[in-house]
Design goal:
With 133 residues, the protein is α+β, with helices and mostly antiparallel strands. The protein has helices spanning 5-23, 78-110, and strands spanning 32-38, 55-65, 68-74. A 3-stranded antiparallel beta sheet has the order 1-2-3, with helices on one face. It is rod-shaped, with a radius of gyration of 26 Å. Bound molecules: zinc ion (ZN).
Length: 133
């Protein structure tokens, strides 16, 4: 991997792409979807047979909040589909944040230390405004 301004420029491009992608993440919520099957316990019900997976599936949206896990039951259909999308976007968001973090750290490593310049840069900072005393 080559050092120098090319590497830095490439990293900055990558970071720019990631920020754009972050801006396109849709509604998201923390949590995960669990598929639950259960046995009703009634003798003679089909679910009592050995090897029967149980009734369902039911879908729960679980999320840990302050150390406790909270679950919400979701109806199959539009409600479940919506939650599925929202959780998927959360995964995407987390993934992008991880990538952005890595790129930023690489940029920090690649960015050279610049000695304090004698004000030959930028239209805004002429340097005479702060600490006037
Ligand atoms: Zn049953």
């Amino acid at each position: 991997m080559p050092d120098g301004p090319d590497e830095l420029a490439g990293l900055e491009r990558r970071r720019e792409e990631l920020y754009q992608e972050l801006g396109q993440v849709g509604d998201f919520r923390r949590g995960s979807l669990n598929e639950v099957r259960r046995k009703c316990g009634k003798p003679g019900c089909a679910c009592a047979a050995p090897g029967h997976p149980g009734h369902g599936p039911q879908y729960n949206l679980t999320r840990s909040e302050g150390g406790r896990t909270r679950a919400r039951h979701l109806r199959p259909g539009p409600e479940l589909d919506k939650a599925r999308r929202e959780v998927a976007e959360w995964e995407r968001f987390r993934d992008l944040v991880g990538q952005v973090t890595e790129v930023n750290e690489a940029i920090c490593d690649a960015r050279p230390v610049v000695p304090p310049a004698a004000g030959d840069e930028g239209p805004s900072g002429t340097g005479g405004e702060k600490g006037g005393s």
